[in-house]
Each structure stands twice: as structure tokens, then as C-alpha cells.
Amino acid sequence: MTVHGINGNQVDCFWTGEDGQPNADKFPIDVLQKL
């Protein structure tokens, strides 16, 4: 998953699913952790 941007407490992310399809969504910043 790649962070595209941060808007307040929402993080815009994108990633490629197991099926090869691109996905994008927004998540609350407190549910994500850096690995």
C-alpha cells in the first residue's frame, strides 16, 4: 500500500490487489501503521 496524501486525519492510499487490479481508498490515520 502506498500513501498518496494526507488530508486532516484521513490518508489517501492506493495499492494493487492480488487480482492485479488497482485499488484506492481513504483510511483514518490512527488505523494505519508504518512497517
Features:
single chain; 3 strands; 35 residues; three-stranded antiparallel sheet; mainly beta
Q: Can you walk through the features of this model?
A:
The chain is built from no helices and 3 strands. A 3-stranded antiparallel beta sheet has the order 1-2-3, with no helix packed on it. It is mainly beta and 35 residues long.
Helix and strand run: EEE
Give me the Rg, rounded: 10 Å
What do the pLDDT scores average to?
Answer: 96
Number of strands: 3
In a few lines, what is going on in this structure?
The protein is mainly β and 35 residues long. 0% of the residues lie in helices and 57% in strands.
Topology:
Layout: E1 2-7, E2 10-16, E3 22-28
Antiparallel strand pairs: 1-2, 2-3
